[in-house]
Amino acid sequence: MAIITRKPRNSSLRFQSFLTSDDITKKSPEKSLVKGLRKHGGRNAYGRITCRHKGGGAHRKYRMIDFMRACRDVEGRVTSVEYDPNRNVRIGLVIYANGLKTYMLLPDGLGVGHTVIAGSEVDPKVGNALPLKSIPVGFVIHNIEIKPGSGGKMVRSAGLGAQILAKDENNATLKMPSGEIRMVNLECWATVGTLGNAEFKNIIIGKAGRSRHLGIRPSVRGMAMNPVDHPHGGGEGRSKSGSHPSTPWGKGCKGTRTRRRKNPLIIKRRK
Fold first, then answer.
1. Which of 61, 135, 157, 241 has the greatest count of CB atoms below 10 A from its CB?
2. Could you list the mean pLDDT of each consecutive 10-residue stretch along the chain, which spans 271 residues?
């Protein structure tokens, strides 16, 4: 995969960049692994906005990813590399020896024709899923469970990987992509390897319309509002309002800790 730019035939194309799709081998998804996806526009069940700047966007269908790697001790083969509009990493269609079809997140170095397997005693190769107790110290992993049997929750974005630093009787110490160092139960499962599509972070959106296609609505600066609308609003000319940076509801947004209690499993907080 590489980042490409296009000839600036109009002003919006001048700064945009795109990812090539040379690695994608199948355009349409597997019908049995797709379901409809309803959008909520950042609203909860009562219609209240709980996440601002969301809404609209192109229609999507949800690909059902096997985050649990539920088919154990059966070898599967990656038959296609596909695009998933719901995430920034490529997904692979895996067909197992027993006929089962699933989608998995594709790590770097795994492609069509490669085999994968999930099990407690399998080799810790790229794409294989094992419990943390079976993965050697120093290996890079992704799709990590927080609690045993919950399915992969952490490290699922393009280009990410967490490193196993140490192990004790019950927990493994992991260095997360954020810089946080935390402990995770040794019975939790993870997949070996670093996720692919690492160039995604270098894409330049380039124009407002492309953000709207992604379902991102405009955000207005607090300084551009009136005093009734935001703590930064009002004043003569361009004004900093004389107060510390804050959210529209008056809470400090720089240096404010938002965790209610200290998590004993986190050794070092992310910066």
1. 135
2. 91 94 93 94 95 95 96 96 96 96 96 96 95 96 96 96 96 96 97 96 95 96 93 89 87 76 89 73
